[in-house]
Design goal:
By secondary structure, the chain is α+β, with helices and mostly antiparallel strands. The protein is built from five helices and twelve strands. A hairpin with a 6-residue loop joins strand 4 and strand 5.
């Protein structure tokens, strides 16, 4: 049986070759001296184990930086309806597609960035398809503009549990709204009125446009 191993070869002229054998398959690649030194430096940094991290039950992803003590997380929104306010109009029990929220939290508990995305229905995996967000305030990189709204401080990852509901409760406006982001090319208020009595499944049959991205791309944007 062939064992997995990683070998580093340095020639007399400082040429560095990395040989990796995994499951009997060997791969060889060359790296620069600069990259090699950086790898050594990273591997010798003080390791600070993370203990007793309690995540929300709907958490999909979590990352932590030992250097800055910041963390990020992605949550699946577990509900198909929410009370939404557009301008000054309230839409109780408004239907929603499957949503994922991402958060970057600084070391003092301040939310630095919020992300929002629409995924396919069903069990979520890294290769799950993403769709263009059909409403407002979300950019192409999934970042959500929260305007002048002051977001609550986050004391622990578990404190994020109620943040998606809080975000959805904020009044919506027309910033970053584009009619071409929905298949019917409706204006924002038209879209809200049109969807108010529909089912969440209707988004997938008549409204949403595939973005060409996957949930892994969403994780990458949220990750530290």
């Amino acid at each position: 049986m062939k064992h997995d191993r990683l070998s580093i070869h340095i020639s007399d002229d400082a040429e560095i070759t990395v040989e990796e054998r995994e499951n009997g398959i060997k791969t060889v690649k060359s790296i620069s001296m600069k990259d090699f030194i950086l790898c050594l430096q990273d591997s010798t940094k003080e390791f600070m184990p993370i203990r007793n991290i309690i995540l929300p039950k709907n958490a999909l992803f979590y990352s932590f930086s030992n250097k800055s003590n910041e963390f990020s997380a992605v949550l699946e929104y577990p509900y198909t309806k929410a009370d939404i306010t557009y301008m000054k109009t309230e839409y109780p029990n408004f239907p929603l597609p499957k949503l994922v929220f991402g958060f970057r939290i600084s070391d003092n508990g301040k939310i630095r960035q919020v992300y929002l995305g629409v995924t396919e229905n069903g069990i979520l995996r890294e290769n799950s398809k993403m769709f263009v967000y059909p409403f407002s305030n979300v950019s192409n990189d999934f970042s959500l503009c929260t305007g002048d709204n002051e977001l609550p401080a986050i004391k622990s990852p578990y404190s994020l549990s109620n943040m998606p509901d809080y975000i959805l409760s904020l009044p919506d406006n027309d910033d970053h709204f584009k009619p071409e982001n929905n298949r019917l090319k409706l204006g924002h208020r038209e879209l809200m009125e049109h969807l108010a009595d529909k089912s969440p499944e209707y988004y997938y049959s008549d409204i949403l446009i595939p973005s060409g991205k996957t949930l892994a791309d969403f994780y990458e944007e949220v990750s530290l």
